[in-house]
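Readers of this paper often ask what the protein records in our data store actually look like. An entry from our holdings is shown next, in its original layout:
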Amino acid sequence: MKKFILSLAVCLCAAFAANAQDWAIGGRVGSGLQAQAELGLTSNTYLEGRLGMGWANLNANLNADFTALHNWNVCTMDWTPSAGQWFFDAGCGVTVGGAAHYAYVGVAGCAKLGIKFNSAPVKLSIDWTPSFGPGISYGKGWSDAWFHDWGMANLGISAVYCF
């Protein structure tokens, strides 16, 4: 599991280094604490990667968490034109994570509402990123799997600096 997460992180870093024209880095806090990076693909699509720790799990213990998403800009709104442009993004991807004797993996969705400010190259947003998949406990000679219902509680606030 650790090698898989590390490999995904290295691939994302390579993608950001290859196309350093339209990307953003920052952080996300909520159901976890994560570093966040975004790579613009077209004018209305981008890849988003999150790596950090989460506590939305069975015993509220800290565990490693990695999420990769492909997001689309669904619409933009001019609610406050002097402050910035509001946006609504949606996307899908995958999330994996775990700790000692516990792991989860799932398909993830994303719904994000935010604002890109005019006065600074910063985007501030709130998002809901539910994941649908199994949670697995394991040990010496035993294992148990169930629907990872805590994956539905993945809420967060993010701030990224746009380059």
In short: The first strand starts at residue 23 and ends at 30.
